[in-house]
Amino acid sequence: MFGFYSSQSKSMIKKNHTLAEGLKEGTNFAFKVTQHMAAKEDMRRGFLKAPLIQKIVNTMWFANKHDDGVVLHNHFKPFPYPALALVLMAIECCIDEWMTGMQTDIPFTIQEYRAAYESHLKCLQAFEDATKTYNVLPSICSKLYEVGCIHSGATPLSALAEVTVSVRVIATAIKEHEEGSTTEDESN
Question: Which terminus of the chain is less hemmed in, N or C, by CB atoms within 10 Å?
Fold first, then answer.
């Protein structure tokens, strides 16, 4: 995804190592980039809009219309900050596997990544506080949810038909109730 290559050549190993360091520096991996990582902080754009973030969200929680992100919409709309911190931590783990310049399996465990998770969550909370006036992080998380729903093929909640009962049905139900009518009475 980021351009790592498996190779025994010393130059490629060095490039992989440099790439891994660059991605982790300043959480560069969380920025939307087009061709090259921007070396200067003021050149970076699209914080939390890296396509890989949405891809992970789609795969983990919105694979289909029966997946957790859709079914448990009251927990995923907008996409929750703790889950976003988990996504960032998972990406960081994948980058860590290349820190030596060659891919090495690293266990994705709470013991290894608790501090990274807490750091990402703290960063998200600080980002929300700093941009609260503009509603930036909630907007990003709402977009993650909306795109996830589209990916899943689920009907958007706003498109669901409203269920209504007519005045006539209500009046008939009241009359039946007052008359003591039950479903058992009518089945004979």
Answer: C
